[in-house]
């Protein structure tokens, strides 16, 4: 019980709001880029307008695509809200609009689920309630709350890898890497089964440790360099969209 007042003081300690403003600006900018990329590839129609049936989440069958040009209008509104968030124009209102519009899209069809979509919704929900203008100090708990969300992405990914298929049979990496045997320089290595085993173990170790390494000032720089290399390689090898960019930018919240 004696630690509680100290903990409260630590959470309420003022920190430079510039870090929060930078996080909000980068997050909004990447969200905008992701929306424009989604529209440019024709996915609004192919995923939400053309299909005759969608697979709803339990309790959210009422969330449906808008008729006619409604989905295009929806994404246009989402793009404007993301731009406002990036520029800091009424950031809490912009975060609210982004959260409602983005989450509505993701609830239409669980077949389109990606783990970083969930991360985006959670962060947008947080940004509704926290100060991110950067013109005044903010309580330290805001910084910790955002760091926690970034860290949870890696921790859950690491826990998901603690199973026989991943660690003992190196699947699905063995299958995925074999398809990249023509990759420049590293292709012959990817074709070897032991490479998949090494990368499977390394991937699990990375996910389970990198949030904690980012917390400590001494290990933060090399951990961030490793994080950039990890996401650069996975982004080149696998079709995971904006995830590498999103996590690389979001991890900057660990720096002062």
Name the features.
mainly alpha, single chain, 256 residues, globular
Write up what this structure looks like.
By secondary structure, this protein is mostly helical. Helices cover 68% and strands 2% of the residues. The protein has 13 helices and two strands. The protein has a two-stranded antiparallel ribbon. It is globular, with a radius of gyration of 20 Å. The mean pLDDT is 94.
Summarize the model shown.
This protein has 256 residues and is mainly α.
SSE blueprint:
Blueprint: H1 3-12, E1 14-15, H2 18-40, H3 43-49, H4 70-87, H5 91-108, H6 115-129, E2 138-139, H7 140-160, H8 164-167, H9 173-178, H10 187-190, H11 193-215, H12 220-237, H13 243-250
Antiparallel strand pairs: 1-2
Distance between the termini: 30 Å
Strand order of the largest sheet: 1-2
**Coarse shape:** globular
Global mean pLDDT: 94
Continuous helix count: 13
Strand content: under 5%
Helix content: 55-70%
Strand-pairing-aware structural class: mainly alpha
Low-confidence stretches: none
* Biggest sheet statistics: 2 strands, antiparallel
Radius of gyration: 20 Å
């Amino acid at each position: 019980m004696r630690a509680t007042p100290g903990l409260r003081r630590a959470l309420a300690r003022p920190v430079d709001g510039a870090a929060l403003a930078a996080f909000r600006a980068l997050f909004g900018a990447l969200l905008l880029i992701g929306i424009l990329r989604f529209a440019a590839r024709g996915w609004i129609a192919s995923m939400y307008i053309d299909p005759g049936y969608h697979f709803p989440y339990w309790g959210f069958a009422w969330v449906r695509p808008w008729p006619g040009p409604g989905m295009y209008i929806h994404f246009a509104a989402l793009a404007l809200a993301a731009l406002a968030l990036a520029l800091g124009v009424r950031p809490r209102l912009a975060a609210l609009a982004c959260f409602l519009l983005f989450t509505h899209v993701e609830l239409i069809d669980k077949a389109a689920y990606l783990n970083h979509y969930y991360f985006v919704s959670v962060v947008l929900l947080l940004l509704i309630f926290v100060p991110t203008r950067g013109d005044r100090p903010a309580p330290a708990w805001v910084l910790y709350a955002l760091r926690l969300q970034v860290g949870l992405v890696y921790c859950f990914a690491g826990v998901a890898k603690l199973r026989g298929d991943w660690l003992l049979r190196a699947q699905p990496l063995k299958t995925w890497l074999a398809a990249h045997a023509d990759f420049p320089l590293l292709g012959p290595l990817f074709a070897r089964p032991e490479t998949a085993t090494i990368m499977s173990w390394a991937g699990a170790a990375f996910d389970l440790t990198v949030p904690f390494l980012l917390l400590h000032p001494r290990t933060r720089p090399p951990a961030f360099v490793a994080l950039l290399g990890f996401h650069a390689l996975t982004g080149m090898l696998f079709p995971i969209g904006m995830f590498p960019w999103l996590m690389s930018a979001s991890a900057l919240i660990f720096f002062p």
